[in-house]
Write a structure and sequence with these properties.
The protein has helices spanning 6-13, 15-21, 26-35, 59-69, and strands spanning 2-5, 39-43, 49-53. It is an alpha+beta fold.
Length: 70
C-alpha cells in the first residue's frame, strides 16, 4: 500500500485521470485542490486507489489550538 498527497498524485497522473480513478468529477477534484484539503491517495497492491482526508477533531477547536502553536 502506497500513500501520497493528492496534489502529488495529480501532478503525476493529471486531474482528469485522478478524478476518474476516484469516481469524482474533475470539478470536485479541482475544488478540493484549491481548498488545500489534506487528502491522501492510497494505492493498493491490486492497483486500485482510494482517498482519505485527515481532519482535526473537533475541527474548529483544533484549528484555534494549532494556530496558537505556530
Amino acid at each position: 500500500m502506497n500513500r501520497i498527497r493528492l496534489s502529488d498524485y495529480v501532478k503525476e497522473h493529471g486531474q482528469a485521470k485522478t478524478a476518474e480513478a476516484l469516481d469524482l468529477t474533475q470539478g470536485a477534484l479541482s475544488k478540493a485542490l484549491r481548498a488545500g484539503r489534506d487528502i491522501y491517495i492510497v494505492t493498493c497492491s491490486d492497483g486500485s486507489v482510494a482517498a482519505e482526508e485527515v481532519k482535526a477533531f473537533p475541527s474548529q477547536y483544533r484549528r484555534e489550538v494549532f494556530a496558537q502553536c505556530s
